[in-house]
Design a protein that fits this description.
The protein is an alpha/beta fold. The protein is built from 12 helices and 14 strands. The structure holds nicotinamide-adenine-dinucleotide (NAD).
Amino acid sequence: MKIAVLPGDGIGPEIVKEAVKVLNALDEKFELEEAPVGGAGYEASGHPLPEATLALAKSADAILFGAVGDWKYDSLERALRPEQAILGLRKHLELFANFRPAICYPQLTGASSLKAEIVSGLDILIVRELNGDIYFGQPRGLRESPDGLFKGAREGFDTMRYAEPEVRRIAHVAFQAAQKRQKKLTSVDKANVLETSQFWRDIMIDVSKEYPDVELSHMYVDNAAMQLVKAPKAFDVVVTGNMFGDILSDEAAMLTGSIGMLPSASLDKNNKGLYEPSHGSAPDIAGKGIANPLATILSAAMMLRYSLGREEQADRIETAVKKVLEQGYRTADIVTPDCKRVGTVEMGDAVIAAL
Ligand code: NAD
């Protein structure tokens, strides 16, 4: 089993190091090969997704990814910015299904900005389509406005579009995920305004006929944003497009207290996947040794489960993470009174001790 390790920028290298430490502490040994990506890729070879890095990602059984991005690259042309690496990997590897669980550990309810009774025991899964939508739709660009009130003025434009097979394949993934959970699927769209969303909704309804055991409901994205803070436990699995999913999954992340706790998986049709924390490269805390490595360690657990077929090892890591929380270990982002405040490395060590 070969794992491509792509630490990236900012806190990426610090948190990936801890996840690698945990993987190396397991009984089974994996082949781990590291390559630069994002700003680190740009520094090494002039492109955020160097050819050698892409080749490694393609040849590996799974990819463990840190995070990319730094403000110092903001002035680069868009195609060379670090964030293009993640978009490129998703596109080249056809990683179309993004799984983002949002779980509120009982020990961390105090870290949430919401009342404990609203979030305690929260366990929802956001399934976000990752390869289409307005993030990739062509045409896009800058031009002279061809019509309307501001005809002739400069304008920026993007295109929201979804092809039927794209919606069908994410629908199947989401229904199957719901089947393994509480069998409730909420499809989030903006069908009252957008043609793309009405089309998405029609296809969701059609695919639902193949999953009579799953209860499908629909919600407009603005309402979903409200319900996520009002009554998040009413959700089980949420399926939505690329842009709405980007925003809602960050919102769901904060319900749990810290974005530093949340793993994610992006899978292709064969369950090969890229595993990364839900957060970014956090340049504001990079190099300080205070980043929370648990989202990345939990991403490694998801990798063992979904791509490498090592369910038992995944369970071991997840149990170890629960144990360190019970023992009171906390990084700065989830700090509570009377806890044992630790840095990135100490948190990794605590997980290994708990293993
Ligand atoms: P961010 O997720 O990096 O940070 C948001 C806030 O959360 C910051 O205050 C940060 O300190 C904190 N935070 C994030 N992860 C943490 C952790 N593990 N432990 C403790 N605190 C943590 O989002 P941002 O500030 O909007 O973006 C920073 C950079 O990351 C940008 O360049 C952005 O493009 C990039 N980004 C990359 C990815 C990715 O690599 N997949 C995703 C999102 C953002």
